[in-house]
Amino acid sequence: MYDEQYEAEKILNEQYLEELDDEVWQMESLWLYLDKRDEFSKQYSTDLVKEYYLDHPHLANNVRNTVRAMVQVQDVEPLSSLIMAMTSLEVLTKNVLLRPFMTGMLHNGFLAELITKQVLSQNGLDRFNNLLYWIIDEHLADREGSDSSDIKFISGRKTIWQTRSELQKIRNEVIHKANSCSAQDAQNAYDLFKQFDSLTTRLLGSLGLGYSMDFDKDIITVTAKKQSSSQPNFTILESLSLKSSSAQQYNEPPMDFDDEIPGW
Q1: Alpha carbon distance 264, 261 (integer Å)
Q2: In the chain, what is the straight-line distance between the N-terminal and C-terminal CA atoms, in Å?
Q3: Is 132 exposed, middle or buried (0-12, 13-18, 19+ CB in 10 A)?
Q4: pLDDT digits (tens, 9 = 90+) for 199-244
Q5: Domain ranges across the chain
Q6: What's the mean pLDDT when you consider all of the chain?
Q7: CA distances from 89 to 13, 110, 129 (A)
Q8: pLDDT for res 257
Q9: pLDDT (tens digit per residue) in 236-261
Q10: For 219, phi and psi rounded to 5 degrees?
Q11: Residue 96 to residues 11, 56, 84, 235, 262: CA-CA distances in angstroms?
């Protein structure tokens, strides 16, 4: 058990440092490492994933900022809405999904940080699809009921991966070529982020984690959820419409005492 894990990390460590700039090799090495891990190692890596989330509880706040901007311009400017939606999706995928899980896959802390930073600095998201399939199948296979590579986009027949790739191209052409986009493109980008946002929240739930709101500072944090809690996990998008219990109480309409007390 230990020998396989040690051998895998040794291979990854030695060759990665020698071929740091070889992007294709980076991903192949990561999969070579994963293939050599046993059940004990998988269980241990789950603990590391949870540890990363709890050590970096504010990792979703940047996404929340761009999501707020996405909502504000959704009905005003499709082009801006699409850019904000796809930017939010990219940061959500890399910082909230991939970074904790990649760190958890590599037991050497320094090596994990080195590889994660190098790999996630690459442009685009399609290159990470196989890794995302693995993460979803590992944690949500029973809940999703289908292969993760075939999850359908809620507004069409294509998969979320195909839709994301197409919308990413539109976003790049908007940014780099000053092209325009349609209102439907913007709506699709909004819906796609919403779907990935929900998927990420369910993944957190599978780890016993979820988002919490600090209303005084208006920030979102990742926290451990009590097993006895019946409160459903909310998404980043849903967090924008949440209000503190004190604010809700303050905003309730005043009681009409004339109706409540007969004879007055």
Answers
A1: 6
A2: 81
A3: buried
A4: 999 999 999 999 999 999 999 999 998 875 667 799 999 999 987 6
A5: 2-244
A6: 80
A7: 31, 27, 14
A8: 40
A9: 999 999 876 544 444 445 445 454 43
A10: -130, 155
A11: 27, 10, 17, 12, 57
d(CA 243, CA 237): 13
Query: Which is nearest to 89 in space by CA: 180, 148, 153, 23?
Result: 153
Q: 136 exposed, middle or buried (CB, 10 Å; 0-12, 13-18, 19+)? A: buried
Alpha carbon distance 102, 149 (integer Å): 19
Q: How far apart are CA 162 and CA 192, in angstroms?
A: 11
Q: Is the pLDDT of residue 72 over 90?
A: yes
Burial of 105 (0-12, 13-18, 19+ CB in 10 A): buried
Residues forming a β-bridge with 212: 221
Pair type for strands 209-214 and 219-224: antiparallel
